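Quick one: co-fold with calcium ion.
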Amino acid sequence: MRLLLVEDDDALRAELREELAAAGFAVDETGNGADAEALGDTEPYDGVVLDLGLPGRDGLSVLRNWRERGNMVPVIVLTARDAWHEKVAGFRAGADDYLAKPFHAAELLARINAVLRRAQGQSPAQIRNGGLTLDEERQSVTTADGTTIPLTGLEFRLLRYFMIHRGRVLSKDRLAEHVYDRDYDQESNVIEVYVNRLRRKLGEGSIRTQRGQGYVFEGDA
Ligand code: CA
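Sure, here it is.
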């Protein structure tokens, strides 16, 4: 899952970026509202954390502009403490949730996971699909026979995306867009390498190659 983090407080942004990356998200970041709006229009983010007070363009305008153009990316807005009007304005502009500053990174993570699962139509507890159960907190997967397998950060991100889109053909480009952040070399065959690593852990038949098109996640094989 790939997130856009928009916050002009450099120290807070660095801290949140670290926490989000540790939780297995690919993170792009900016402290400028106009840049955020452009990124949100061009990159396929799975979610956005959006501060409201920003240089360049304020967060509410960014959010309103996205929604007016039909961009329904899940957005959590960060509001000033006790600013109830900001919260109301945020929801009116199309926010999915809000968080008042100051907050603990763990709370932001919980909100993000809840908003993403709602957006994907998943139940709030765990991601289950194809005989597998993905544990977001421990970054591990449990197979149908009860074996728990630890995953590296990239394996986890890739498997999470596969599980949410089980049975669909996913191209390497699409997988790379949702699993990496902007700085990654998307030309490399890293997706292929990681697909093979997941196959070794979950069984050869878990991910089928659709020649010339990409991969299809089948589940526990
Ligand atoms: Ca701010």
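If it helps, Residues 8-9, 51, 53-54 surround calcium ion (CB under 6 Å).
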